[in-house]
Amino acid sequence: MEGAARTRARYGRTPYVADVDRAPVAVGRGGTDEGPERLSALSDGVFAIAMTLLVLDVSVPRGLDDAAFHEALRQALPNVGAYALSFAVIANFWSDHRRVLGGVPRVDASVVGLTLLGLALIALLPFPTSLLAEYGYEPLAVAIYSGSVAATNAVHLALLRTSHKRLGPPPDPLTARVRRLDAADLGSSVVVFGVAVPLAFVSPNVAMFFWIILVPAKRVIGGKRRRATAAGGDGTF
């Protein structure tokens, strides 16, 4: 009775099964966490800051005459392009991260560790973005950017696989197919950006064009996933 009263005081009502996800769960030794909600809130803040920092490299000096103004705009175009690319990349990371983290059934030390590692890489992304904007012709700059994106996707893939293990075996073949397609979606990014790292030392331009392969690849994978989900597969992730 006392436990039920405490629970009603916390939630303002009699708890449902869904409230289990918000109950404190153990995180390794000597620590507790309140489920994925707190990690998700922390993640949202880091993603928002990283997105904001991207725009700091986009600027035009004051007090320019017409000729200098137009030249400054021309020189700012690579920064604008790098900003747009990285904003789209981080937005996609944010969407994947919320989707994966929202499906984690139990938060433990490994989930927290992978999440923090992913956030550290996200917070670092403005740096390789500035390198790409200023030195896009340099193989090392393109390699660093590609490696950063590949590493972040690899962490998200590891988090997804950890979540799948926590959920146990898929209950039906369609759910198993959805899980494989989710892993393939993240894995394709790891492969493409990972291959672009050595390719950058052959030709930076070819390496950057190689990224475009992800557009049709993700469309195909996304289409298959939607069909599997519509047929009854569990689309939690």
Please tell me how large the radius of gyration is.
22 Å
Unreliable spans are 1-33
The profile of the biggest β sheet is: 2 strands, antiparallel
Shape: elongated
Residue fraction in strands: under 5%
What structural category arises from helix and sheet content?
A: mainly alpha
Can you count the beta strands?
Answer: 2
Instruction: Round the mean pLDDT to the nearest integer and report it.
Output: 81
Number of domains: 2
Tell me the helix content.
Answer: over 70%
Spatial strand sequence of the major β-sheet: 1-2
The N- to C-terminal Cα distance equals 37 Å
Number of helices: 9
Order of helices and strands: HEEHHHHHHHH
Can you characterise this structure?
The protein is elongated. 29% of the residues are buried. Strand 1 and strand 2 form a beta hairpin. It contains nine helices and two strands, in the order αββαααααααα. The chain folds into two domains: 1-32, no CATH class; 35-230, no CATH class. The model is unreliable at 1-33 (pLDDT under 50). It has a two-stranded antiparallel ribbon. The protein has 237 residues and is mainly α.
Short description, anyone?
Its main location: membrane. The chain crosses the membrane at residues 39-56, 76-95, 107-127, 190-217. The chain is mainly alpha-helical.
SSE topology:
Blueprint: H1 2-11, E1 25-26, E2 32-33, H2 36-54, H3 66-102, H4 109-124, H5 126-135, H6 139-167, H7 173-200, H8 204-210, H9 214-230
Antiparallel strand pairs: 1-2
Helix pairs in contact: 2-3, 2-4, 3-5, 3-6, 4-6, 5-6, 6-7, 7-8, 7-9
